[in-house]
UniProtKB/TrEMBL annotation:
Catalytic activity: D-fructose 6-phosphate + L-glutamine = D-glucosamine 6-phosphate + L-glutamate
Major location (coarse): cytoplasm
Root EC class: transferase
Domain SIS: 43-194, 215-356
Name of the protein this chain belongs to: Glutamine--fructose-6-phosphate aminotransferase [isomerizing]
Chain's gene name: glmS
Function: Catalyzes the first step in hexosamine metabolism, converting fructose-6P into glucosamine-6P using glutamine as a nitrogen source.
Amino acid sequence: EKGGYEHFMLKEINEQPRSIADCMRGRLDAQAGRLIVGGLRDYINKFQNADRIIIIACGTSWHAGLVAEYLFEEFARIPVEVEYASEFRYRNPVINEGDFVIAISQSGETADTLAAIELAKSKGATIFGVCNVVGSSIARATHAGSYTHAGPEIGVASTKAFTAQISVLTMMALMLGYQRGTLAESKYMQLLNELEAIPAKVEKALESNAQIEYIASQYKDARNFLYLGRGYNFPVALEGALKLKEISYIHAEGYPAAEMKHGPIALIDEEMPVVFIATKDSSYEKIVSNIQEVKARKGKIIAVVTEGDTSVKSMADHVIEIPATHEALVPLLSVIPLQLLSYHIAVMRGCNVDQPRNLAKSVTVE
Ligand code: F6R
């Protein structure tokens, strides 16, 4: 059942080239210039004319929501708010009929997300679900939705569900942007091609496994980790830190790299591994200076970089390469080494990777 892998988590990490392809199958055909997220059909007008998009989710799904915020705002120019379901539902939020709410949940059973949906529904908003489990409570409670089709996720730490969520949300953002005229046709076509190339690039990213295992052996006894990224890689930094803490029980924090100087930089000394997600994108120069700041304080630098990078390589203690892609699609690749890093560290520490202490696969209590 684990397909020859020692743990479900490792199997699920390795399944991602296929699960992402499954998620895009029947929806994306770059050659034909076609992208259809079927679940949106009946609500396309509401979506196109939304005053605001509100995303509600918890945990890893919330991180996928943060990536979506960047995507929807960049391509469709609609303001987005990303909310922890638990905070949203208890604070008497402002919700209007013109709001398009997207609820993201792997299990489709998360109690807080479900309650937040009911609240938004009662205020007249349109609710769209992005769920993995077919027929789940959240899938049933929403007006419409699209499944992620990642297949069953057994490991408690979410991996392939996360990349499938981002895939669906990316397709939604591109479709919306194109239809609203905020995303030019040539750029849209280019993005469809890039998106179609992602499964093969994920496969390539997975090839760094042995190298990541070596890096894990060097840092498995660290007491703390810091994960830093900017732009599209900021949510990836949060996700990398969450993956590490939940399965290895090492304290880790994710931060937008520029926030470092507002506090976390005080933590840095020669004992502190700092994982930078420093791919070649519009914030590359900025993150390079953040890396210099950490280096000057003798922090240990592990960097996820774009293939062929030289500047970061000259400063970092370790670099892990991922293939180049459009900046907006980078999270689908940059999260892969972070999943593997947390996996190997947890295994080396003798942790129960698939069923970490105190955690359940679906959180059906508030
Ligand atoms: C992290 C993890 C949790 C879930 C969260 C939401 O690896 O598994 O943080 O992401 O409990 O669960 P769903 O997506 O099922 O609503």
